[in-house]
Queue: 2 jobs
Job 1
Amino acid sequence: MKIFWTLLRRELGTFFLSLTGYVIIAAVTLIVGSTFVMLIHNMGTKPFAMPVTQLFFNSFMFWLLVILVAPAITMRLFALEKASGTFETLMTTSVGDLQVVAAKFTAAVFFYMVTWLPTLVGLAIIQCFTNQPKLDPGVVGGMYLGIFLSGCLFLAIGCLASALTKSQMVAAMLSLAVGVILFILAYMAQVLPDAAESATGALYYFNLFKHMEDFTRGVVDTRTVIFYATAAFLFLFLTLRVVESRRWK
Amino acid sequence: MFYVGIVKVFIRRWRNYSARMALSITVRNVMIEVSNLTKRYAGRTAVDDISFTVARGEIVGLLGPNGAGKSTTMRVLSGFMPATSGTVRVGGFDIFHDSDETRRRIGYMPENNPLHPEMRVREYLKFRARLKGFGWKKSRERVTTVIEQCGLAEVDRRIIGQLSKGYKQRVGLADALVHEPELIILDEPTIGLDPQQIRSVRSLIKNLAGNHTVLISTHILPEVEMMCGRVLIMLGGRVLASDTPENLQRRMAGGSQVIAEIAASPSALRTACENLSQVACIEMAVVEGEFSRCVLTPRDGQDLRPLIFKLAQVNGWTLRELTRSRHSLEDIYMQVTRPRTEDVE
């Protein structure tokens, strides 16, 4: 555990001490901010029928951000260490493979959540300066839970991609490709009437838009939570196996 | 089936344990024991069935051209990758099965000395000490010690990426030393340094002798001659020779040539030398004035110097130089590695 905290501290350190970290935060803030501005502009003074959070997170903008930001955060994790050789010095100390994967993933998730913090300002502005109904804490909580869970899935994919290669570019491309595939699946689930109607259809579980819509209304569906949790675990498990694979004969 | 499994596990544990006990009793002085180590990458054998042992406190140089399998051997020894077959024991522990125990005992500096360039020296070393299982207090103590030991005191707050290569190398060394390992494995520790830096890194390594066992890989020969008590020459994944630098030289000394500079008429000198039955081959050249330089090769490994001296004395010639050329490690290295290199070509 001691080693896990040391690793986590160092991983967070690289996020917050490097320029890339702040570039990512700035980019996310820019896109989120401009979306909010547009929302506020279109809102006028009339109260909306649905919470503002739902308006924003149902836009494609949100998913575009997730798909782009997750690879940007995770591509460095293993690939850079492998390329520079520090992976070798790391793995010949007393660290366990699980500790390494867990620390890197936790740091990525933490950083990812930090990049979404500026949205709180947006919410505060809407709360204080518009005539929209008061935001329900459940809605806000659901929204961040949704960001967290979908983030976990995409970051876990990114971890796996990064563990598979020495090149950060390849890692980013791989996780981007998988992210886009997930996005297309979600889109299909959304537009194909059959899948949307029958809750049993496998595609239903991939309807990321629907999941997010629920979260932003403050509805936490256990099926959705379990979908994200298990999918993230699957990719993390695969990452662990890849890290271990160097010890296979 | 279940019981058979349990019994098998039990037997294996017992064998492991008894082997370890036997080993610790009989060869307590052995630090590294490599037996029949083979490492194959996809379709290529990097290390081919090598065996050697290194005693506690020894400084051993692993010498060989690029691609001889030095780095692969070291990577396996450090526990980073498993061997395809064969076993490696460090301090009596199997490198694969008791990975944690062995990792605690090994300080490893890989090729090219990878560091985190964005960290500060002290911060980095502290981080490494923590990863190697030390607590806050202990790691602070150890870091202070190694910073002094490696002469890093004046740069301990600098960012690693901005240090000179010599300092970076010392940071790598300090990292390898920070957890007080019994065995230190250094893969080409002086590569890319200027002569001054090489000298300081070398003296650092030399100071480690006694307290630590050191395994160094290099392809710089004088380095081995200066630092190492024993040399392993590797080529094509095999160990071709293993001895002290002096012994290797002695082994080669049999054919060592004698150089003499004598003032005499070349023809008289040549006939006189050719009449000596002990001389197998003679090369002559006029150097300056009446002096001629002869390079004499002995027939049966005999030392020709007394004979030449007598020859000059008897004929009344002036003798101004008489030396026996000792084979340098370089000759030995070339001789050991040449035939196979040509095979490959």
Job 2
Amino acid sequence: MFLFRLNTYKMLKIVDLHANINEKEILRGINLEIKAGEVHAIMGPNGSGKSTLAAVLAGREIFNVTKGEVIFNGKNLLELSPEDRAREGIFLGFQYPIEIPGVSMVSFMKTAVNEARKYKNLPAYSSSDFLKLMREKTALVEIDSKLTNRSVNEGFSGGEKKKNEIFQMAMLEPKLAILDETDSGLDIDALRIVSNGVNKLKNKDNATVVITHYQRLLDYIVPDFVHILYNGRIVKSSGKELALELEERGYDWIKKGEV
Amino acid sequence: MSEVVEKKDIKSQYLELFSENIDKISNVSSSIINKFRNQAIKDFEKLDIPNKRNENYKYLDLKTAFDNKYNYNFIQSKIQVKLEEVFRCDVPEMDTESIVLINGWYGNKTNLLQKVEGKAIIGSFSEAAKQYPDLFEKYYSKSKNIEKESLVSLNTAFAGDGIFFYVPDNIVLEKPIQIINLMVSEEDTFAQPRNLFILGKNSQAKIIVCDHTLSASKFLSNSVTEVFQEENSVFDIYNLQNEHNGASKVSSVFFNQSNKSTLLSNIITLHGGVVRNNVYVNVDGEHCESKLYGLYLSDKWQNIDNYTYVSHNKPNCNSSQFYKGILDDASIGAFNGKIYVSREAQKTSAYQANNNILLTNDAKVNSKPQLEIYADDVKCSHGATSGQIDENALFYLRSRGISEKEARFLLLYAFTNEIIKEIKVEALRDRISNLVDKRLRGELARCNSCVINCC
């Protein structure tokens, strides 16, 4: 018997996911379920597979999925192209956002938003409606409007790049946002702005996965669940108190297998 | 077999064309132009049509392009082109009256020379040689090293008409001038336009040259442009090349810079069968600035070859060269560029870069940046890259829901934008941006208002 709770359908279900790159196995059997309205934190030492998991979910083709399945809102995610995953509502916040000189933020976002609308059989935004949307979201995530007038990430500081990820997230309104080490390299002010953005965008119909190395980010984005990823597997899952324990004890006890 | 034996070598065909028609050529020309012909044809005979054994033509064999029975116009073309009917390039903010060359001859028969903004003169090269002998004595065929290129010599031997442009001292032209260089004929046609541009002291001008083919015949164009920039002059020249796959073109431009002059050259090759652009910059004054840009987009079996030679002969000058190319299908591209710094040219700052994107395994690009430096206090650098589309950037765009096709297009467009953004005439920049957009999308790249399908 399955017991369904109101408002909490399974948005994402990962079963026994294995993935490798150049024959080297990185993910060795991930199992994870995420429901709408939840915030999950994935923590773990360097090289444990956190970023690989994020990239595989977003459809990065350099990784080979060798086993397992991922169901996203009833669809087999692994069969979809990266762009279709995005249009279905997956968003990856990059650890190292890419600089694309010559592509303006406006044309980048306009293309992205309108392609998603086309996918959903909605008409494209007019230029004025689109610019209005840009302005709204710019204010919401407190990103400097000067940045949105420039080429994508070109010459942006580390903090500006991360703010720009959150801005793109606000524009695309994903169902599942996966933020890969969004806190790395951020000063405290930028961290606050980025976290505020994430919190403002959170609602009962979407979910967030925060991948982080440090507990600090979780002071701002409070998770419902914390998972520890080590050696390509989730070795421990618990409530937010697990993050504090990691902060105190480090990762050595995980590595020694004391879980 | 007999056909092969009887076939003359290609050079002889052109020598014969010269000897049979020298009277016809000379009759319509000024003596100042005529006096260079005999030496020039001798130089051509000695140097021959360049092939791959010539170091400067290492990546291009022009034999095939020259090996064709072309028709040659020795006098002003009979073709009356009503420009407003067949071709109208309506880039706004341009001077309304466009200057047209048809198969190398000045297109306007009634008004051979005209004033620009009441101060400068533009018009037929042939007519100007008769009316301004002093200027022609001083400048014509006086570019440094002009005798060293065989095809330039071939042009000098045949020189009939082209564009003459003279901006007197202290004259600043507000609007850019557009020259439309058309090839149109029912027969395969060879043309050799000869242009002479003179910018007086403290003068400023901008020129836009648009090369187009208007009929499906095979064309060969071997043009020579000499530009003389006197002290403190500012000159911008943009060349938009948009010819069909059966057209071959060799364009040689000699820039001669005096003290404190500023030059900007930007060659955008959208389309063309075989294209060879030679740009020679002779920096013969102090505190000069020279910027050379180039963008080439090729597909099918097109062959686009850019050659530059920047010669720093005086101290305290800056030059930069930035050429970019996108090569698709089995097309071939080349960038062969040289910076020469003489012993005297201390404090020279010279920079050269060439970046290419190859879209297929069959496309090929040869990049050969070279430095030859004899001064010891200089800053020079050069670099070249060729590669594929950046996969990380492609994934970044796709992860935002942009289709792979559109993402590729955005990245290619961005790659070209670094050259396009250097176009200082805004209306032209928008137009070229639009043409490059269409070209990259595989749609027809022609001016919106042009009724003839020219590529």
